[in-house]
Amino acid sequence: MATFLYKVGRLAFRRRHFVALIWVALLTLAGVGAASAPAAGTTSFSIPGTEAQKAFDLLEQRFPGMSADGATARVVFKAPHGQKMTDAGNKATVEDTVKELSDGSEVASVADPYTAKAVSKDGTIAYASVKYEVSGMELQDSSREALQDAAQDARDAGLTVEVGGDALQTTPETGATEIIGIAVAAVVLVITFGSLISAGLPLLTALIGVGIGISTITALASALELGSTTSTLAMMIGLAVGIDYALFIVSRYRAELAEGREREEAAGRAVGTAGSAVVFAGLTVVIALVGLSVVNIPMLTKMGIAAAGTVVIAVLIALTMIPALLGYAGGKVRPAGTKSRWMGGNRAERKAAAGKAKPNMGTRWASFVVRRPIAVLLLGVVGLGAAAVPAGSLELGLPDDGSQPTSTTQRRAYDLLSDGFGPGFNGPLMVVVDAKGSDDPGAVFQQVGDDIKGLKNVVTVTPAAPNKAGDTATITVIPKSKPSSVTTEDLVHSIRDKGAEVKADTDATVLVTGSTAMNIDVSQKLNDALIPYLALVVGLAFLLLIVVFRSILVPLKAALGFLLSVMAALGAVVAVFQWGWFAGLMGVEETGPVMSMMPIFMVGVVFGLAMDYEVFLVTRMREAYVHGEKPSQAVVTGFKHGARVVTAAAVIMMAVFAGFIGSSESMVKMIGFGLAVAVFFDAFVVRMAIVPAVLALLGRRAWWLPKWLDRALPNVDVEGEGLRTRAEKDEDPDADRALARV
Q: In whole angstroms, what is the distance from residue 217 CA to residue 227 CA?
């Protein structure tokens, strides 16, 4: 592979006009496609295989036009101090609001508080329930605006009005966070390379790659039913890996220049060596992202595949456009160890020429670890183990309006409903009874209602509401506890247990659905999928790394180190978002269960990124070992050339993710914090401390591979051994013609 990529790098360097034209044309084509594509339209949100989804599907069949999974909104009214909602003036305002809400094009029904008995016992709070024909993710912006306008009109009339429910669900705005990440990346790159030109290349190619990826997603959104959330992960990952991959190759190019090679040769060798690491690092990320499909949540599958496509684009750009741009830059990209004049380049060069250059920080750190591997290993493992302790108390759930900041209308509506009707009112359960196969459906409906009334944690059970055929009915259950509590989850399981008894006695089916039950089912589905997903991703990547490193112990160490860093990161998430440690510093206003998607999401994303650092750092070590260095010296050599680059890559990645901590959405905030912390643990504790300590202890055994397996595996030559047989400044015309045929 190294030889093939070497040829690709040299060809891209020499044919830079053609390569640049291709990528600019692709960016233009994707942009035109995105601009001319029809609007994304509606996307269905379904969780196949869950009881809540089965209930929704049954309701669609037995209650045509009911829009069981349609968005809901609760417009909550509070009377001024000393007044009640039953006063004539306040009642007239509410009735006007209900009429205004009913005129919406996507509104299925609006329940008047006075006819639906939705007024609190003390008369100070009332609410109107709005049901829409489409889900919250499909709702048009005009419908949300009409909802907010109606609430504002009631406020202008003197009432306190807040709006809750999933009808206000929107995709969080994250543009500012990406700008912060790019700004930090630019600073890190300038410091790393000591040159604006060298720093600008990774940024430029990353932005082009993300532009092509996101524009393609936008262009295909309508045809493939991609939701607006699909591009969020693609943008986050594409930007981070795009900068990192280009950084790896530019850094290796400068190192080759420092060894005295001509620029075309240096570009070829940079792509042949660092480019090989980029290819395999990208493959691990793609495996992790595509592997999200095992969860069998369509939205998550689409997000993973879209992000994986953006990663593929980032790899291809790094392998072709970076050497082309290096050809354009010419002498403005300087050899490693030198800096531009404005950063003191002349002084640094004079110092190096005088032989006074000291070993870099990576060399000094690796030498320290090699001398004291046991102490460093124990300190790293114990430290991460301590950070992982809170993960033992992990509670999973999905965020609701109660986890929103108090500054939002959703949270204020949630609090008003809790005050007026009890906390369980924010998460009603819908029980669907399918008595089509029973002899007396009416008696079954009554029995189910009575059974539920006898359960703990139940405040209200409404009478059964049958369909026209009389064979299916819905029953609404109001719990005492809030939707995200463990007590409410226990109630859902208790109702389902009663349903199993009813099934045995009457052959009727009892299903529990609603947003609260759906959240519980999604959490359980994600939890059940975590182990199979982990086994699939780690197993495939383990096999891939065996091919890359031609070793058993190195890939095993990489996988175990990753698990340690992920557990430590989950522990940090639990400590902040569940226990409330440093919650004020992170802007966390409400603690509660950790988002159920967080563990599997973190495993997928962080595993791919962790393998980036592992591949780039350890391939440098293997390269030195294959070229004749002792194992301990190979570790030091790998850090000499790779530590600075991996450090810069990790800081950039952390900056991109940490920018999302400032989001007002608790889910986005949690993802940003969790990924930033995970990258910190994995890059600086696992890859920079535990990995060199383990390799120093293993010595030559680290690179052991059974002979039969060595013969069976393909030789991908990531370390570039095949390039040593080529003349360093080969100008053979036959070789040039071979390059032209690539």
A: 10
Please tell me the distance from the alpha carbon of residue 725 to that of residue 718, in angstroms, as a whole number: 15
Q: How do beta strands 465-466 and 107-111 pair?
A: unpaired
Token couple for 397: 């759930």
Q: How far apart are CA 725 and CA 735, in angstroms?
A: 13
114 φ/ψ angles, rounded to the nearest 5 degrees: -80, -30
pLDDT at 354 over 50: no
CA quadruple 488, 489, 495, 501: dihedral sign: negative
> CA angle, 521 as apex, 519 and 525 as ends, to 5°?
115
* Integer angstrom CA distances of residue 309 from 23, 231, 313, 320, 615: 16, 11, 6, 17, 20
Residue 433: CB atoms within 10 A of its CB come to 27
CA distances from 307 to 137, 236, 239, 246 (A): 20, 9, 10, 18
Q: Mind listing the pLDDT tens digit for each residue in 597-636?
A: 788 878 877 887 777 788 778 877 887 887 788 888 988 9
Q: Which residues pair with 433 in a beta bridge?
A: 473, 510
Quick one: angle between helices 196-224 and 230-258, nearest 10?
150
Maximum Cα interatomic distance, the chain, rounded to a whole number of Å: 99
Q: Which of 645, 668, 690 is nearest to 254 (CA)?
A: 645
Whether the predicted pLDDT of 340 surpasses 60? no
Report the alpha-carbon distance of residue 14 to residue 736 in Å, rounded: 10
pLDDT band at 29 (very low <50, low <70, confident <90, very high): very high
Q: How far is CA 315 from CA 239, 263, 325, in A?
A: 12, 21, 15
- Dihedral sign of CA atoms 182, 188, 192, 197 in order: positive
pLDDT band at 68 (very low <50, low <70, confident <90, very high): low
